[in-house]
Amino acid sequence: MKKFITTVKNIFSIEDLRIRILNTIGLLIVFRIGSFVVLPGVDPSRLGEAATGIFGLIDTFLGGSFSRASIFGLGIMPYISASIVLQLLTVGVPYFQKLQKEGESGRKRINQITRVLTILITLAQGVGYITATIPDEAIVINKTLFMTSALILLTAGTMFCMWIGEKITEKGIGNGISMLIMIGIISALPGAIISESLSKGGGGILLLLLEAVILFFVVVGVVALTEAVRRIPVQYAKQVVGGKVYGGQRQYIPIKVNASGVMPIIFAQSLMFLPALIAQIWAEDSDIASYIGTTFSDFTSWQYNLVFAVMIILFTFFYTAITVNPEQIAEDMKRNGGFVPGIKPGGPTADFIDNIISRITLPGSILLALVAIMPAFAIIAGVSSEFAQFYGGTSLLIMVGVILDTLRQIESYLLMRHYEGMMKSGNMKNDPSSYAVA
């Protein structure tokens, strides 16, 4: 406890870090306040029940603003969608590949295209959002006027959320966009704990403590999955520049076991609602369609979880393949005079790295699938649905990833000022700054 208090004092004794933390807190408060501001022309008391299904997942990411018909009703989700589209385009479209290689000017151009695409996606999603989630009886003004004003405000709200995220990244601590998602998820945690406590009653304290212990070990497992890397040794040839000798030391390239992050779960989760929606069209005329609709509407069923897990494994391989390029890594190593001991530079090195990625991606994808279906097991075991979402899935992975990234940034500030870091050793385990990326 004494070490923790000392660390906190050290954090706030660094002026730049203190200002960044206060900026982050202030911007997050603005974001949370905005999530409670209802669109003009909507009677909140007439809104429907809490969102479920894919809408419930989005509502979790946005901290409840989706179901409240807030001006931040779409939050930064359109921006994330636009970013994913641009990321995929940089893999398959030569024009975007060229922009990606142009350095800072190319990144600025990609950011401009992302912003324009975000506005277009927000307008398209806004129409569906208003139509699907806001009942007619909740709209107290002319519907045409409401549709026009709501689309403008939703678009402005999304762009403002994007601005908040960029300011947190620039003036605060951590990745701003990820921080907004995390704060939305964490905002549901107190209510989930209270709901779980009430459901257990006065005699369920021991059971609640047991659930907390299990949750602790689940979080530890997710941290291990997030941080696990396979280190590839790289030897750099000695070079004499200006009478000084450079290189000659051995460094490492870290290849993450879970290189795709939460994206496979997000992709699979989006597609898992299609069978139930499609089956509803023929449910009255077909027993099979009725069975499919019932089965895939229940995310605790073994059929749902089996298909969900298989899709996550497939998407993990797909997303890893498009984000990690062994040929590019091998080419960069060769250009910088580096080589893997015992492996020839160029093509053989690319094949060697590709084989390693293939071997570690399979166990990583299986573990990721297990984390994704953990909430279903928690619900079957008697945990309330609100609290069960923190036992795994996208929510837990996002929270763990954002918290670790933020701690690393704080760690770097402390070490730069010669303070002892967040960890006893003074350096967080698997800190990317301790590796060399070719």
Automatic annotation (TrEMBL):
One of its GO terms (cellular component) is plasma membrane. Component of the Sec protein translocase complex. Heterotrimer consisting of SecY, SecE and SecG subunits. The heterotrimers can form oligomers, although 1 heterotrimer is thought to be able to translocate proteins. Interacts with the ribosome. Interacts with SecDF, and other proteins may be involved. Interacts with SecA. This is Protein translocase subunit SecY. It comes from Cyclobacterium marinum (strain ATCC 25205 / DSM 745 / LMG 13164 / NCIMB 1802) (Flectobacillus marinus). Pfam families: SecY. The central subunit of the protein translocation channel SecYEG. Consists of two halves formed by TMs 1-5 and 6-10. These two domains form a lateral gate at the front which open onto the bilayer between TMs 2 and 7, and are clamped together by SecE at the back. The channel is closed by both a pore ring composed of hydrophobic SecY resides and a short helix (helix 2A) on the extracellular side of the membrane which forms a plug. The plug probably moves laterally to allow the channel to open. The ring and the pore may move independently. Belongs to the SecY/SEC61-alpha family. NCBIfam families: 3a0501s007. GO terms for biological process: intracellular protein transmembrane transport; protein targeting; protein transport by the Sec complex. It is a multi-pass membrane protein. InterPro entries: SecY, SecY/SEC61-alpha, SecY_CS, SecY_dom_sf. Signal peptide: none annotated. Keywords: Cell inner membrane, Cell membrane, Membrane, Protein transport, Translocation, Transmembrane, Transmembrane helix, Transport. HAMAP family: SecY. The chain crosses the membrane at residues 21-39, 71-96, 116-134, 146-165, 172-193, 205-225, 259-282, 302-324, 366-384, 390-407. It is found in: Cell inner membrane; Membrane.
